[in-house]
Every structure is written in C-alpha cells, then in structure tokens.
Amino acid sequence: MQHPPRVVITASGLTAVTLLRLEGGVFTMGSEDRLAYPEDGEGPVREVEVSAFSIGAAAVSNADFSRFVEETEYVTDAERFGWSFVFAGLLPDHFPPTEGVLHAPWWRKVEDANWRHPEGPASSIAERLDHPVVHVSWHDADTYCSWVGARLPHEAESEFAARGGLEGKAYPWGDDLEPGGEHRMNVWQGDFPILNSSADGFAGTAPVTSFPPNAYGLYNMTGNVWEWTADWFHPTFRQRDRRQDPVGPHHGTSRVQKGGSYLCHHSYCRRYRVAARQSSTPDSSTGNVGFRCARDG
Questions:
Q1: Does 242 score more than 90 pLDDT?
Q2: Would you say the pTM of this structure is higher than 0.90?
Q3: Among 35, 60, 33, 57, residue whose Cα is nearest residue 44
Q4: Is 1 a member of any domain?
C-alpha cells in the first residue's frame, strides 16, 4: 500500500488544498464491462503508465470555493448565464414548473441556481460548507485550480488515483458495491428517479470526506459528485497499446468527467465505477458536478 506524504498548496494565505503525492506507475485502465455504455468508450482495456503526480485528497468544497471568490470576485458561468440544472427531486413540492431536459425530465432548468444557491435562490450553502462545490463549469474548475497553483487531473491520473492500487476492480475498494452491507459511497438508493431511500445517509451531496478513503487516502473518488478532468472527450480515442501519460485528444467539444454522482443507480447510470466516464461541454453546470485539483510531480 502506498502512503504518500501530504502537500499543501496555498494561495495568498487564504485557502489551502491538501494534495497527496502518488508515485505513479503502470496500471490497467478502462473496462470491458458488458453493461457499460458503448458511447462512453470505456474500452478497450489497456496498460497505461502515469508519472508521479499529486491530487486532491478530496473534492474542492464550498468553503474552499468561497475563499477563492471572496479574493478574486470571480463569477461562475452559471451566474453569468443566470440559471443551471437542478435535480427535480431536490426541489420543494411547491416549486413552480420549469423547463426540463427532453430525455431526462428529472433535470430542471432553475433560474438563479448556482454554486451559492444549489437548488435556486431560496437555498444556501450555509450548512453545506464542507460539501463539494457544484454548479461549476469546466472553465470555473480550471480557473480555481490555476489560482491555487495547480491544474485539473488528467483522466488517466484520475482513474489511477481512484483505483488506489487495486488492479482491474470495479470500485476503489474492490468488486462488491456494498461489501458486508456497508455503504462506501454516496449514490442513489431505491427506485430512480422516484424514490431515494437515502440508505447511505445522503439524499444530495455529502461532505467531501464522507466514507472511508481508498488505499491512497483519497475520498469519494466514486459517487457524490462527478469531477471534471483536464482531457477532451472522444469515445474512440483509447488504444490497446501501453501509453505514457496520455492526455486525451488535442481538441474536442466536451471534456471528460469521472466518478459518478449521488444520482447514479444501476437502473439508469452505472457510472459510479472507477473505469466509467462521461462527457460534458466545458461551459455546462449541474447540481451534481464538482472537481478536485492536481499538479505535476
């Protein structure tokens, strides 16, 4: 088991992001899970080598992001656009009808929903400062990481880190979703999208250090919130030969997200596995997407 030292990056003395240094190495990336989504391009499975790098022990929290905004007066994409997508099940029963997504009606376009107000103007992060910041676009995440002297992790780095040294396993702890009946991550429990029993303790986001960390000391590498990576997405980019520090295509229309979220469920989105991935345009934001930082060496 690897026990990387803690590294703290500070920005003007106001914020700190705890990064863990990983020595890197060769690992088996991807999956040929027969139930995976072909359009995601999880396969083929191949050997990849990553150099030493450091990565956030946890996702960036609302408290972290608040300090960033206080110093820089940064305005997120969702704030500029004036709206963001919110999961309907988190809205109060009396919430007025709003525009939904055609093939995913549980996503609602909510005016003035943003990182400060995750479910719209009547909501607040005051009691969620230790939860991951959400409603952040790729541009927002990239800007924050630059501010703390870091960057977003590459997809290969994210998957290497999530695996925690385990080879070819579905989750950061092994192949059993709930070993011994124990919940190890924040995902949907029940009948999606109608009933969430919250059996894992959370109906929406959870604090960034919820659940035991993996063998590398990293929290919530699956579940809770999707996390932006630095890489452009392409479903057929992956190759069978071993690659050194792959960084994705040179251009594209969407960026790779890893890890799944509190909305993932086996009936709808089995992307709570370490090999899973999805794509989203860099200016998009939703209530289940956040990020963590990384840096070279």
A1: no
A2: yes
A3: 33
A4: no
